[in-house]
């Protein structure tokens, strides 16, 4: 057999093997891509949480504002939700105490994104519509009331559903809980989508007000960019839940793939974009990273001298 014929035979067998195992290869590629993106992005999000924690612990910081506190809560909620998924993969859910804690935690995290988006929109709306009253609304007692409402919203809106179906909430993989699982997804969709639908007019009105105002000061420019940032986040949120609904309705692999991409886009594009569009956040974050590097360098230098 000539080399050309042998090469053709090998290439034919290779393409045949790929065609035969195409679905398996796609699933493996997807798992690798999804897990890699989640690992890198959640690690960065953890750094962002530590950074914001240090800023909030200072006596004074430019980031000690309501918008960043809402952002901080959304980061923590998302990280806790991802940790619950990781723990499920490890099989720790088989321990009853862990099962109860993390299933309830996941229930809370699933009901939270919509109220976070609504609070972002409400914050930007009041900043543009009532600039002179903004600080009165988002500081002091009114701010604590707003944050309390945001944190307790999933409990207020869905606690009865949790208690009434507590067994299936903990054991949603059992056959008798199949109907509950579908109902839970519908409730989650309705709660989050309703809040985003309510948030969208606030963002549009804020854009309208911002177009009629002049932005000369540095802080006014930041306010405008935060509004654009919030609008992008809301649009990505709508895309995520649109593909989620289509996937659950039609069960198509490609729709499920788009759901994954939209999920990661909604989570991670705003996360990475914030330092680029907000120089106040970027300046504080760069200072935070540099301080950590200088601190580590100083420790290594001392250790070398002791040796």
What features would you describe in this structure?
The protein has helices at about 5-20, 20-55, 65-90, 95-110, 115-130, 135, 140-165, 165-170, 180-210, 220-250, 255-275, 280-305. The longest helix is centred in the N-terminal third of the chain and has 36 residues, at about 20-55. It contains twelve helices and no strands. The chain is mostly helical and about 300 residues long. It is globular, with a radius of gyration of 24 Å. It has a single domain (about 25-275), classed as Rhopdopsin 7-helix transmembrane proteins (Up-down Bundle), CATH 1.20.1070.10.
CATH topology: Rhopdopsin 7-helix transmembrane proteins
Q: If you average the pLDDT, what whole number results? A: 78
Number of helices: 12
How many strands? Answer: 0
Q: What is the structural class?
A: mainly alpha
Estimate nothing, just give the exact number of structural domains.
1
**How would you sum up the global shape?**
globular
The CATH superfamily label reads Rhodopsin 7-helix transmembrane proteins
Major beta sheet summary: none
Distance between the termini: 68 Å
Oligomer: single chain
Gyration radius (Cα, Å) is 24 Å
Helix fraction, binned, reads: over 70%
Q: What portion of residues belong to β-strands?
A: under 5%
Low-confidence stretches: 297-307
What is the CATH top level name? Mainly Alpha
The appropriate CATH architecture is Up-down Bundle
Query: Helices and strands, in N-to-C order?
Result: HHHHHHHHHHHH
